[in-house]
Structures are given as structure tokens and as C-alpha cells.
Amino acid sequence: MLTCRICEGPLREICDFGRHPLSGGFLRPDEIEREFFFRLAIGICGECSMVQLIEEVPRQLMFRNDYPYLSSGSTVMRKHFQQTAEYFLRTELTGPDPFIVELGCNDGVMLRTVAEAGVRHLGVEPSRGVADIARSNGVRVSTDFFQESSAKSFYAENGPADVVYAANTVCHIPYMESIFRGLDALLAPGGVFIFEDPYLGDIVQRTSFDQIYDEHFYFFSATSVRAMARHFGFELVDVERLPVHGGEVRYTVARAGRRPISAAVTTLLAEEEAAGISDTATLTGFVERVHKISTDLVDLLEKLRAEGRTVVGYGATQKSATVTNFCGIGPDLVSFICDATPSKQGRLAPGSHIPVCPPERFADPYPDYALLFAWNHAEEIIAKEQKFREAGGRWIRYVPDVHII
Ligand code: SAH
Ligand code: TYD
Ligand code: ZN
């Protein structure tokens, strides 16, 4: 029997997406032979409702020295994290000598504002390349994985943390028991654990199935996060919906009994109950819509190819690995993908082996159609690439359904 990674309850498979590569595994041509694959499938726990991957990819394969994702790549996200830092400085970090720890600080996009304010902080970032960029931005970083053992040494060295924060990182970590033991060691008695991740409610509602890939191990809801916090002796005390990355929720977790539970928690739990977020019928409907998107997208790309139209991808996102590999889209349907991240350029996208090129290639000459893989950054990208529209180009989107704009 499959069991839940949080509570060991029975795990029921919801969808099998088939064989998938590492979503961050951008390849040199000589690496194709050795490409790593695993079975991408999700299930839901019958006890705690946590939606999770069924197969776990070893963490050292994903979070490596050359981890390709750079958090500062989007203007919108830079602003989001600056505002987040300013919010912490105004609220939780006003004591005599406050201390904040961030898990998965990446290139220091959030902590640099904290560092500039002269507040004690520590970034925990196992991917050495991005950790070094954070250091060059004036951020103090430990290149460890956060877990019970490292958290204990952070406590020994720094004392208790007022805030432990993580964006788009907690959902990447299967070993949650060790995380909560670490939090218990590191957090001040009245401290808070604040984390934000893609929201299951938005994924289901928008059919954004491309949020499902190797690194995203958990798909949180208020219902499942409340159960998880309780399971480890903590309490979910606040939630806030965020518009970034296609819809996220910021969860605040504290030691049981230390903070009042906000009305927002009760409201979101009731909304999830009314929407049947953990019901078989809801999840079956989601899977049916995923299959329809896949068929519609491939039909459209094949039709455009038959008409002699040119199609390129925009944004070599990790999400796009799920789309190309699930739908079976290769360089015959999408000739290349433009992306501003230097370490992805000149490489082949994982599994699909579609070449990744710098954004300058986009206009040289403009294609007839651009498949917007970075749909979560649509506003920013469409504004930046206005000349493409003016030249008669069209964007293809596949969330919440396949359409041309
Ligand atoms: N917070 C950034 C980066 C998210 S990417 C943002 O929102 O843009 C996820 C990051 O988590 C990666 O940089 C990865 O190296 C890091 N990570 C993975 N496992 C971790 C762990 N156990 N502890 C701390 N960081 C971890
Ligand atoms: P993102 O959607 O943030 O995350 P993930 O890889 O986890 O799915 O990735 C956005 C990608 O798009 C990233 O590789 C950078 C690229 N990008 C551009 O090339 N140009 C842009 O203007 C923006 C905003 C992103
Ligand atoms: Zn469970």
C-alpha cells in the first residue's frame, strides 16, 4: 500500500503523468544518453488530505551546484520579495535583536533587503551557485539543506529565530518530520514559520497541471497544512492568498496555543470544504481537463505546423518540462525556447530536447506564434515583447485552457 509522507495514512493515486526528466535538468548534447527519468504521479492521503508526489527524486540530483533557477529573473517577483522583507521588518522583526532565517533563499532576492536594514539573518541554500550570488548581494548564507541536524547547529550558533521564512521551498521538501523538528529547535517560543507555495485550490481551478514536477513534492491547501502542522505539534494560525506564480497561499504556523487563529484560516477552510478540494470528483474532473488541454495543445501545434507557421516557446520554465513531456512536444512542434537565464541558454530542455536560446533570438525574425510557458509572468513578458504583437505575432496559452491571444 502507498502511504502518506506526512502521516503514513493511505495514499490514493490521482494521476500518472508517465516518465519525466529532472525539470531543472537542462542538458548539453553529450548528456542526453545519461538523462535521469522517474515516474511523475500524484496521490492524495485519505487521512490528512495532503496531495503529494508518489515517487521521490533524490534531492542531490535537483539541488546542485549548478541549480539553474534564479529568483531575481522577474521584476514582479523582485518587488514581491522586497515588499515581503519590508513587511517582516515592520511586523515580526521589531524586537531588540531580531533574527530571521530563510530556507531556499536562492540568489538572496528577499534577504538582501533585510541585510541592507542591518538585521540579523541567515539564508539556508544548498545549491551552491545561487548561494554564492546571494553572498555577493551581502547576504549571510549556509550551503546546507535545512533539516533537524542543521537547524540545531544554526540554533547553537545564532540563538532562537523570530521568523523562519520560505518561498517556493517547503513544497520541495518531502522530509517534513525533520523540518518540523528543526523548527522546534530553532524557533523562539513565540516565533513563527511563514511559507508560501503554489495553492492546490488555484492549481485545480486553473488546471495548472504544469505546477506538478519533480521539485514540487507537496500541493498544499489550508486543509492539509492545518493537518500537517497539528501532526507535528504546531498550529496553522494565518493564511493569505497571493497572486504570484499563478496563485499561492502564504501560511503562518506557530507552536500550538501561542497565537490566535485568524478569521482568514476559518474562511479558507470553509471555502475548501465547499469547493470539495479533496473530493474524488473534484480531482477526477481536474485530471480529465488536463487530458483535454494536452490533446487540444498538440492538435493546435500540429495544425500550425501543417500550415507552415513558425512556433517557438517563451520561458524555459521548470513547469514546461511537465507540458512538453506529458503532451509529447519536441523540436518538431516548438523549434526553440527563449529564456533570459544564462545557464539554460545553449542547452537542451529536459526530456523534450528543445534547444534553449537567449531572448534576442525571439525577434530574429519573430515567429508566427509563441507558446507562453512562463504564463505566470504573462503581464511582464507580453508588455516587454509588445513589438511581437505589433509584428502580427500571437501568443498561445494553455492555462486554464488552450487559447490564442
Ligand atoms: N525562495 C526562492 C527560491 C525557490 S526555488 C523563490 O521563491 O524564488 C527552491 C530553493 O530551495 C532552491 O534554491 C533549492 O536549492 C532550495 N532548497 C531545496 N531543499 C532545501 C532545504 N532542505 N533547505 C533549504 N533550501 C532548500
Ligand atoms: P518561473 O515561471 O518563475 O518558474 P519555474 O521555472 O519554477 O516554472 O520561471 C520563469 C522562467 O522564464 C525563467 O527561466 C526565466 C524566464 N523569463 C524570461 O526569460 N523572461 C522574462 O521576462 C521572465 C519574467 C522570465
Ligand atoms: Zn497524510
Structure notes:
48% of the residues are buried. Strand 4, helix 3 (111-116) and strand 5 form a beta-alpha-beta unit. The longest helix is centred in the C-terminal third of the chain and has 27 residues, at 280-306. 33% of the residues lie in helices and 22% in strands. The protein folds into 3 domains: 11-53, no CATH class; 62-259, 3-Layer(aba) Sandwich (Rossmann fold); 281-404, Rossmann fold (3-Layer(aba) Sandwich). It has 405 residues and is an alpha/beta fold. The model has no long low-confidence stretch (mean pLDDT 98). The strands form 3 sheets. Strands 6-5-4-7-8-11-10 form a 7-stranded mixed beta sheet. The protein has helices at 59-62, 75-90, 111-116, 128-136, 148-158, 176-186, 200-206, 222-231, 263-275, 280-306, 319-327, 378-384, 386-390; strands at residues 11-21, 37-45, 51-53, 99-103, 120-124, 141-142, 161-167, 187-198, 218-219, 234-242, 248-255, 311-314, 337-338, 356-357, 369-372, 394-397, 403-404. It contains 13 helices and 17 strands. Bound molecules: S-adenosyl-L-homocysteine, thymidine-5'-diphosphate and zinc ion. Thymidine-5'-diphosphate binds at residues 69, 73-74, 315-319, 339-341, 359, 374, 376-377, 380-381, 384.
Give a summary of the structure in a few sentences.
It contains 13 helices and 17 strands. The protein is α/β, with parallel strands linked by helices and 405 residues long. The protein is globular, with a radius of gyration of 21 Å.
